Amino acid sequence: MYELNKKQKLMIICMALMIIIAFLYYIYTKDSDTYVSEEEFVEQNEVEHAEENTVQEENQKIFVHVSGAVNKEGVFELKENSRISDAIQQAEGLKENADTKSINLAFKLEDGMKIYIPYIGENTEEQTQNAQNDETSKYVTSSSGTIDKTQSKEENGKININTATQTQLETLPGIGPSTSLKIINYREEHGGFQSIEELKEVSGIGDVKYENIKDFICVK
User: Fold this and answer.
1) Spatial distance between the Cα atoms of 58 and 102, rounded to a whole number of angstroms
2) Contact in structure between 139 and 165 (CB atoms under 8 Å)
3) Correct CATH for 159-218 of 3.40.50.720, 1.10.3720.10, 3.20.20.220, 1.10.150.320
4) Which are the contacts of 39, defined by CB distance < 8 A and separation ≥ 6?
């Protein structure tokens, strides 16, 4: 019987070790390709959820009624968080005699709103009052963008800073057009004021100005 010498045995052992090492390397690299660390897994889930939320937001729609000095009156479908300017664009733009001085084109819309664009020379205050008296009209345009039928002034004469228009806010001591717009933007971004003291969070309203107006305002 043929016997292997020491050199041949050593060669066989080396070859066997090389095969084992190659096999183990293959298994390791295969597992490492499919292995995902905890941090990577969390990050991947966050990305997937963000993408899902983006798709959901894009799919959410609102309906608004646009009338007045626009080229096409009617009810239009818009993306959620659209602005009055988007509604006007859907209504094929403004007529030449449209008056937008009293309208905040950047006002964020909600489902079911009615946007009325007045004509130049039109009595917008009368139009607003008529729309408020009309039970079929939930919203009409004003300097802040919209007014609902909830009264901005309480029975005690105080101004509700959660529903007041820009014009009404400007009746407060020391509140001009710039600050009134900041108040409106703040309440839109934060879902309204929870207390009158929160008004001091608005840029431009310090302790002194707040003390001057606190007796004239309320929240509801």
Assistant:
1) 30
2) no
3) 1.10.150.320
4) none
Neighbours of 68 (CB within 10 A): 21
Domain boundaries, the chain: 58-148, 159-218
Tens place of pLDDT per residue across the chain (220 aa): 556 677 777 888 888 888 888 888 777 765 555 555 556 655 666 766 666 665 555 568 888 888 888 999 888 999 988 889 999 999 999 999 988 887 888 888 888 888 888 888 875 544 544 444 443 333 444 444 544 434 445 445 788 898 888 888 888 888 888 898 999 999 989 888 999 999 999 988 988 899 989 888 999 8
Domain boundaries 58-148, corresponding CATH code: 3.10.20
Cα(133)–Cα(127) distance, rounded to whole angstroms? Answer: 10
The greatest distance separating any two alpha carbons of the chain, rounded to the nearest whole angstrom, comes to: 119
pTM given for the model: 0.40
Phi, psi for 47 (deg, rounded to 5): -65, -45
Q: Other C-beta atoms within 10 Å of 122: how many?
A: 16
Q: If you compute the radius of gyration of the chain from its CA atoms, what whole number of angstroms results?
A: 33
Look up residue 200 and give its DSSP letter. Answer: G
Q: Is 129 helix (H, G, I), strand (E, B) or coil?
A: helix
Q: Which two tokens stand for residue 2?
A: 């043929």
